[in-house]
Amino acid sequence: MFTKSTSKDRPPHWSNGTGTAFKNPWPSAKPPTWSEAFDLSFPFSLYPTLQKHSHARPIEVVKPDWGVASLEAQGIDKGAKDCVIGTWLGHAGALVEFTPLISSPSLMGENGKSVYLLFDPIFSERAGPTAYTGPSRFKKSPCRISDLPGCDAVFISHNHYDHLDLATVVAILKDFPRATWFVPLGNGKWLANTGIDAKRIQEMDWWEAKDGSFAEDGIFKSLPGDMQKGTAFKISCTPAQHNSGRSGLDGGATLWSGWAIERFTTSSEEDSAQPVRKGAVYHAGDTGYRRTTKSSVICPAFQEIGKRFNGFDLSFIPIWRGGSLGFISYMGLRLSHHDIPSALHCSPTDAVEIHRDVKSRNTIGVHFGTFIGSENESYDAMIEFCEASDQAGIVRLVGDEVGKNGRAGTLDLGGSFAVVVGEE
Q1: Residue 53 in marked binding region
Q2: pTM of the full predicted structure?
């Protein structure tokens, strides 16, 4: 099933003709120019007293309620409105619930059930090749895998240890053996070697899309011909500006990506009725946006995502470098992301730009606050994310109505946010 691909017209992100080596095809991913590098300052300094800043708050670890409090706070009745609920599980991990549609039955599977999608999960204490190596957690996981209310599909953005964790994969396979796994090119064989049935692994390239539904046996099945009356999902693999590798020898051997998930329904009795979108979610994976925070050359993929999908009800966008170089803040030093190359990890300000580019209505900032060296890193990320949102006219995620530029913010680990799909 996981054989080499071939293409007469090699995609620009392929490094060879067989689809077994990959690269970032944009100038925004190249090393800084000499002038840009010369413009960078010494990146280390002492941390100021960030915890006193009005936008700073400690990230708490809370027991997930899977959206109950968010629904109540916003006065949303998920039995009367079509909703999408996102829960941050720490780092880039997120669980998304597509609640049952009010007026449309499921095309395949049991009617009236939610669909649960899990993104980049990691529940281990360390993000590394063994249980004793790699960055360790600064914040505990808010729950166990067995606590999840469901898991119909798992989406992996790339194979770095903090996004594809062996112990987590094995545990999901044990608790949710019927889940379908979606991965970028080259990652299917690794998953199959963990014991996952190859029939439950969907390997995809950038801009590739699959239409289907989750059948009673849990397998994501493509729909025969045009969509019939009912509900179906469109799964799209989207570009990201990053890299891959689990050792020093396999860099770029597998693809990296983001994911766009759309739910459609056709409820009209007329055969000619067109599918109507009833919810769209975007997970950016791990990504950069420009060579340095001072560069004007940006990654064009996100504006293209915004054009192709015309916006998302809920997005998960990284706002920090994750656990990279966390030991520096552990020693009490501040590593300025404004003075190091940033092609692979977007800054909080860049995350706001991605929010705007992809036309997100509601964005949850992720990829921070978990595998870090000190709370200062969380404060740093939140302060800049809030300030950039304010400057862009983006209102707070919690406590504000959706403005013309959408909402954005951060949650506690285990916190949830609910949105009514398609509501401006």
Answers
A1: no
A2: 0.94
Upper half-sphere CA count for residue 273 (Cβ side, 13 Å): 15
| pLDDT, tens digit (0-9, with 9 covering 90-100), for 308-343 | 999 999 999 999 987 766 777 767 777 788 878 889
Beta bridge partners of 11: none
Q: How many helices (H) and strands (E) does the chain have?
A: 8, 18
User: Is 379 labelled a binding residue?
Assistant: no
- Token pair in block for residue 309: 């999908």
Beta strand pairing status for 276-283 and 314-318? Answer: parallel
Which amino acid, one-letter code, is at 227? M
pLDDT for residue 109:
42
Alpha carbons 323 and 372: distance in angstroms, whole number: 5
Strands of 120-257, DSSP E? 153-155, 180-184, 201-204, 209-214, 220-222, 230-238
Three-state SS at 20: coil
Tally of residues, the chain: 424
For domain 42-420, give the CATH number.
3.60.15.10
Rg of the chain (C-alpha set): 21
Across 99-208, where does the E strand assignment appear?
A: 115-119, 153-155, 180-184, 201-204
Q: Which two tokens stand for residue 13?
A: 């992100």
Single-letter code of the amino acid located at 87:
T
